[in-house]
Design brief:
about 200 residues; mainly alpha; three-stranded antiparallel sheet; 8 helices; about 50% helix; globular
Length: about 200
């Protein structure tokens, strides 16, 4: 069966710039830069054909899951970090792409790998708890919107209310404790949503 997931990192990539139709423009360029020795953070690209098939059927094959899990393990080994780990979490960005550029149509999820335990490790490693809890806030909002289809209205309402109660004119003025409570409130909203909800691994390890 054809390969569905293509790894790049540590100076080598399973792909080239000529594979735009397979990897999408972004994936092909990441592969090319890796092969040229540009210090690109390691990662992997899922073939565009898998996305097309999922959009048609709403399903993905077990083979794809196995390939993704194998490449996550490969990424963990290369970085020395583990996805969702409560001591040294691996955080990744999930970015969409296509063979033809589609400005304004691409979705992104940042900080995948954060959960209510991993965020504590990030706060300790960065020596900046406010940064860690703000990163978690952004992950929860992006995941909820992109994956779960939850309206951002409730989240924006929470943020506005928190600024008012904290006497903050901007988000940057919110304290670590404000953001920690905001994250907890966001999780409570997700608990009330019907459907798949937030995966357990995204909540804690």
């Amino acid at each position: 069966m054809p390969q569905s997931v293509f790894f790049f990192g540590n100076g080598t990539a399973e792909g080239t710039r000529d594979m735009t139709s397979v990897l999408g423009g972004k994936g092909a360029n990441l592969a090319e830069m890796t092969n040229l020795g540009v210090p690109v953070p390691a990662g992997f690209t899922i073939a565009t054909s898998e996305c097309i098939e999922y959009l048609k059927t709403g399903k993905y094959p077990d083979k794809l899951r196995a390939e993704v899990e194998g490449n996550v393990a490969r990424l963990e080994k290369l970085t020395g970090k583990k996805l969702g780990d409560p001591k040294d979490p691996l955080l990744v960005s999930v970015r969409s792409g296509a063979a033809v550029s589609m400005p304004g149509m691409m979705e992104t999820i940042l900080n995948l790998g954060l959960n209510d335990r991993a965020v504590v490790a990030l706060a300790e490693q960065s020596n900046n708890a406010r940064f860690a809890y703000d990163s978690y806030r952004r992950f929860l909002q992006m995941y909820s919107s992109v994956v779960l289809g939850v309206s951002s209205h409730d989240f924006e309402h929470l943020l506005k209310a928190k600024r008012m109660t904290a006497g903050a004119a901007t988000d940057a003025e919110l304290s670590e404790n404000d953001l920690r409570n905001l994250d907890r409130s966001r999780l409570e909203i997700l608990d009330t949503q019907e459907g798949e909800g937030l995966p357990a691994r995204a909540r804690h390890s």
